[in-house]
Amino acid sequence: MANGATHDQITLTLAKSAAIAALLPLPWDIPWPVAAGIYAGLWLSPDLDLAKCNARKRWRDFAWLGWIWWPYAKLIPHRSWASHAPIISTAGRLAYVGGLAFIVALAVGQGESMLDWVGHYQAAALAFATGLAIADTGHWAADRWG
Q1: Which helix (H) or strand (E) holds 20?
Q2: Which helix (H) or strand (E) is 113 found in, with range?
Q3: Is-contact 84 143, C-beta < 8 A?
Q4: CA 24 to the chain's CA centroid
Q5: What are the pLDDT digits (tens) for 96-144?
Q6: What single DSSP character describes residue 26?
Q7: In contact, 54 and 70? CB cutoff 8 Å
Q8: CA 63 from centroid of its chain's CA atoms
Q9: Residue 1 scores a pLDDT above 70
Q10: Which of 59, 63, 72, 75 is the most exposed place for a label (fewest CB within 10 A)?
Q11: Which of 12, 76, 25 is nearest to 47 (CA)?
Q12: pTM of the model
């Protein structure tokens, strides 16, 4: 079972690889959001249910955001299929963060604008989610075989 530093190194290596691939002359802009999604794995780790997780520490660097993952940690048991299964856990964390962002957008009167933005950038959003799923799969593999 890998520790937090190993998980971060795997995520950074995957993100660097994707960024290098994005430099290739490809006919679309999808590699950049994939690389960004992988890099986001440093903040949206499957270990967010652990108080001592490196990703939760990163959130606490923004003191007023430290509370965001407390409900998630109470609802999702560590290393369960809901926190660590590739794709399923990625979708769950994105839904959690997206739901919180949508509530804030509604509170400030921008809910419809947020939905329009997501719809307009649908391909990039899907590529970002794919990148995050790649980071989660690296995390899962390190836990399983590391």
Answers
A1: helix 4-22
A2: helix 111-120
A3: yes
A4: 24
A5: 988 888 888 888 878 778 778 777 788 888 889 998 998 888 888 887 7
A6: -
A7: no
A8: 19
A9: no
A10: 63
A11: 76
A12: 0.78
